[in-house]
Amino acid sequence: MSAAARAFLIWLLAMLAGAVVVWNSHFSADMSFFLPGRPSAAQQVLVDQLKEGVVTRLLMVAIEGGDAAQRAVVSRQLHGRLEKLPEFVSVQNGQAGSLDADRDFLFRHRYLLSPAVKPERFSVDGLRASIANSVDLLASPAGMMIKPLLPRDPTGEMIELLSALNAGAQPNVREGVWASRDGERAMLLIQSAALGSDTDAQEQAIATIRSQFADSTRETGFSDARIVISGPGLFAVKSRETIKSEVSKLSTISTLAIIAVLFFVYRSARLLTLGLLPVASGALAGIVAVSLAYGTVFGITVGFGSALIGEAVDYSIYYFVQSGRLGAAEWRARFWPTIRLGVLTSICGFAALLFSGFPGLAQLGLYSLSGVLTAALVTRFILPALAGNDHPVRDLSHLAAPLKEGIRTLQHLRWPVILLTIAATTVLVIDRHQLWHPNLSALSTVSAEDGAIDMALRADIGAPDSRYMAVITAPDREAALQAAERVGQQLDTLVVQGVIGGYDSPARFLPSQAMQAARRASLPAGDELAARLQLAQADSPLAANKLGAFLDEVAKAKEQGGITRESLNGTGLALAVDSLLMQRPDSWSVLLPLRPPAGDKNAEIRIQPVRTALAGSDALLIDMKSEFDRLYNDYLDEATLLSLAGFAAIVALLAVTLRSARRLGAVLLPLLLAVILIIAGVHLSGEQLHLMHLIGMLLIVAVGSNYALFFDRAGDEHRLDPPTLASMAIANLTTAIGFGTLALSSVPVLHAVGITVGPGAVLALLLSACFSERQGD
Amino acid sequence: MIKRLLGCLFLLILALPAAAAFDVGQLMSDLAKNKGGKARFTEKKYISLLDKPVVSSGEMSYTAPDRLEKRTLVPKVETLLLDKDMLSIEREKQKLSINLANQPEALAFVDSIRGTLSGNRAALEKNYALHLSGNADKWVLTLLPSDQKISTLVLRITVSGSKGLVRSIEYLQADGDRSVLNMEPIELK
Question: Which residues in chain B have Cβ-Cβ distances shorter than 8 Å to A147?
């Protein structure tokens, strides 16, 4: 077997194995791209909430068009249809009767649920005070509501329960169903059975809502009704669509553009195919490496392929163009060391990302690193054997003259370039506080328009945003509920002080068994209660003999079984408890969402008093927004550190290889100038910089160094021969196309890298030419 | 005989303009002239379950056409504020706000008092049939709910007063319980 055949066979086997791995890979386009790989305890809550939290399962629906009565009919119709489907655990539209089951449950179990149930409350004085209070309440406008309950609940336990529940703003109601604040839309709040992180199921759920809506409008004959849906599930589905369509769109654009360039250069289908071989191998190897290392391949990572193609194709361009007259062996001796050094600097850049705690970034690093390395190795070891010595590349020496002319012109521009860079630096220093986007939303794929729709619907329906939470972890359910009750007492104090507006707790509907037992024990026996009631009501307008129903109810409550999670089934309270009390693999965790005080304009809680109050308790206080901000800042700090480390590694590599401070300086100077000019350019174009721009800066150095090194080599030999010059120009063009295509992306992660590295690579080449040694012909 | 007949006719002619002068329209325009003021109120609720009525008292103030504040001082401090369609009740540490546009029955109930105070005949006739008796100095306006939903809450509302001032409002509820609200204007200095 010839060397060529053997090489081809090995390559083919490797490719087949890779294809099998890719075929079996799991691809994902969800939030986990952004979620920390090594979360702290607080971040873990964040991650859990984003993956499984109830809030991520909420979908908000608005019905528009027609008049309020028509919308209400469709709202009821849609409610009725969706409620029957197993995909939805809760469908609410505010219609009458929907809360009856909950109210019945609360009333039936009021003596086990009311926090006011204590032995003192059923003493003679306690009864007198609480019943007098209820009678006073009759004088109030609210009295009409409590009057029917009074004979059965004279101590007012139901009022106690309901007043703790008043969950702030309720949505507007028109024609008996929820409406937006302006009354022009009917609103529904839907909770899917599927987790927010299950994008397929979310997509299915949204499609079901849309089709049921279409059927509802058909049935009610209200044809000009429109539906608007928003919520985390919709965002997940939309960003997956965006990423999917962009991955294929961007890859197609960059592949076609690069093929066009290559065809112009090679004018040979065979060379074109051979030239793409290292690229295809690299792209495949990238996905294989990520799939094997992480198990899941993010869509955005694959989207980065467009850039990889642009860079990986450089090596075969160098080979074909440069080895044309020299032959493979001579090429290896003269050019390969320079190319190898370029590959190594690129790898240094990408490898720095591997250490990131931001999983998306680490994947991009691994993907690019394996891709570039594979492409280079295939070019070096497989391509020459396959191509043989017969690969006449069209003579490109006619390009040399204008290129050299261009270089000479550039060399006259050194001072203007330096002045421009000084100006750019000044701009960056002056604007240093406005350069950076402050939070993680900079990386979010959600469009501004979708974000605005979501804000509007959320405000209309008063959907919870659960920014603040106290989190408790306990070994079992009973311990978790007891801890929730203890923390609840501390939170009650904060409510009284006005620090927080209120809070939710699973123990409100499912008290711990200990608490239930204590409350039951507070209820006196029948005769005893009757005797005390006689004494208590002696002077009251509400005579004891009219309260027989009360005695019966208390006796029944003493007999009645306790509340278990199962007894909540069939009420909306089950959902409330499940969303706040969760079983983990080896523990239980409780969430106590805190509400800001009513009337606080920014809906913010002064966090310090809450932290102080909860110090020493079992609860961990979490502010989701600041947790997100901290997460992003951690990422940003880490990315800064990694970029610097990557840069240091590149400098060290070049220093060791070049062994000359002057040469090192000559290679690095144009790269640094390119970085400064590009960043200033991006800033002045009105874009706020974020983490990925920072990574882009590192990649300008890592990728741009490839071109700077050829000038260094040329300086070494005191000449730059026409094929080398042409190959550099063409390779630079393909790289710029590859990365530049990403700049078209609406996915911020890809766009930022594209907008920095695409122009950055070109600028690196131009500036390297500008500062290259003047040379004779 | 003819003389007597003529006399009757004469009396009738005299009486007619007087009767025509005081009708619902006249009352409404009298009421509408009242741009607001303060009053002390006493409210008695007669509830069958209780051996004696529940009495509460405090101050009310009204600013035409749609702001009404009722501050109960006895037995418990409580503030009820009706501003356009927002009804808020503050009692002890609790505050409750209700948008009446969401509660058509409650709105109809509130409109009975607000419509009377502001002399808004259209608002009253939307939900009630009006019957007026007495004269401008001492009139009694009876509101009978025309809507089934409202009559399950209240059977009859009787408002009495003199000129443009409302003196008392009585609500007779469907279960036979009733409440009487008496108001005594506080002279503004």
Answer: 47, 49, 177
Q: Which residues of A touch B75 (CB under 8 A)?
A: 136, 139
Question: Residue A309 burial (CB < 10 Å; 0-12/13-18/19+)?
Answer: buried
CB B95 within 8 A of CB B86: no
Determine, yes or no, domain membership for B173. Answer: yes
Looking at CA atoms only, how far is residue B177 from chain A in angstroms? Answer: 10
Range of the domain at B43: 23-188
Of A301, A428, A280, nearest in space to A361 by CA: A301
Residues of chain A with Cβ-Cβ distance to B96 below 8 Å are 142, 166
Per-residue model confidence (pLDDT) at position A142: 66
HSE (side-chain half, CA atoms, 13 Å) at A436 = 16
Question: What are residue B165's DSSP bridge partners?
Answer: B162
pLDDT at B189: 42
Distance of alpha carbon A261 from alpha carbon A272, whole angstroms: 10
Out of B54, B78, B91, whose CB is closest to A138? B54
What pLDDT digit, counting tens, does each position of B121-145 carry?
Answer: 888 888 899 999 988 889 999 999 9
| Residue A162 pLDDT | 78
Longest dimension (CA), chain A: 119
- Phi-psi bin for A620: left (phi > 0), alpha (psi -120 to 50), beta? beta
CATH at residue B130:
2.50.20.10
- ipTM of this complex: 0.75
Q: Helices in A157-196 by DSSP H: which ranges?
A: 157-165
User: What's the number of CA atoms in the CB half-sphere (13 Å) around residue A215?
Assistant: 13
Strand pairing category for B94-99 and B86-91: antiparallel
- Is residue B16 in a domain? no
CB within 8 Å: A141 and B55: no
Mutate: best of B54, B72, B88, B99, partner A, most A CBs <10 A: B54
Select from A183, A542, A598 the Cβ nearest to the Cβ of B50: A542
If you average pLDDT over every residue of chain B, what do you get? Answer: 81
Residues of B with Cβ-Cβ distance to A150 under 8 angstroms: 49
How many contacts, defined by CB atoms under 8 Å, are there between A and B? 62
Angstrom distance (rounded) from CA A116 to CA A377: 76
d(CA A228, CA A214): 12
In three-state secondary structure terms, B55 is strand
- Whether B146 maps to a domain, the answer reads yes
Residues of chain B found within 8 Å of residue A142, distances taken between Cβ atoms: 89, 91, 96
3-state SS, A259-297, equals: HHHHHHHHCCHHHHHHHHHHHHHHHHHHHHHHHHHHCEE
Distances (CA, A) of B82 to A608, A615, B66, B85: 37, 42, 7, 7
For the whole model, what pTM was predicted? 0.77
Q: Which regions of chain A are under pLDDT 70?
A: 1, 141-142, 164-170, 389-392, 462-465, 599-602, 716-719, 775-777
| pLDDT surpassing 50 at residue B14 | no
Interface of A with B in 140-179 (CB under 8 A): 140-144, 147, 150-151, 163, 166, 170, 172-174
Domain membership flag for residue B8: no
> What are the phi and psi torsion angles at A252 (to 5°)?
-65, -50
Q: How many domains does chain B have?
A: 1
Task: Find, among B117, B158, B156, the residue nearest to B140 by Cα.
Answer: B158
CA atoms within 13 A on the CB side of A736: 16
- Cα-Cα-Cα-Cα torsion B98, B103, B104, B108, nearest 10 degrees, comes to -40
- Given CB atoms, is A68 within the 8 Å cutoff of chain B? no
Q: Is A24 helix (H, G, I), strand (E, B) or coil?
A: coil
Closest CA to A672 of A690, A654, A692, A657: A654
Return the percentage of chain B with pLDDT > 90, whole number: 16
